Amino acid sequence: MTEKKPIRTLFCIAVHQNFFDLPFKDIGPVWQGFSQFLGGVAALPGVTVLGTLDDDETMVGTSPSGFPWTCYVMADCPDRETVQAACNLFRTIEVGEYRLWRYMRIEARMGRALAIPQL
User: Fold this and answer.
1) Helix 27-43 / helix 80-92 crossing angle, nearest 10 deg
2) Burial (CB count <10 Å: 0-12, 13-18, 19+), residue 39
3) Which of 2, 17, 66, 86 is the most exposed place for a label (fewest CB within 10 A)?
4) How far apart are CA 66 and CA 31, in angstroms?
């Protein structure tokens, strides 16, 4: 039997205007929710987080159409259901009376690891 290869997944995260409209004192709970998301992804069975990239120093403001995204998480996931479960965290993580998706959005790109030939 052939070993099942992980799905290389790039989670792309955009920050909504709702986040930027918050008073400074109310930003902390959103970051706590986002930290809960990151921990939740890493805790999903079979997930290996390969790296993250935060573009907030050179991209300031919202990402209303997605690109450019504000930050990224690259992970190897065991299957499509796990990728869906990671994205679903935006629907379930509470930030005050709202969910995380009020402040951020997520999309996932799935594929395979690109093999780099020896030069």
Assistant:
1) 160
2) exposed
3) 2
4) 19
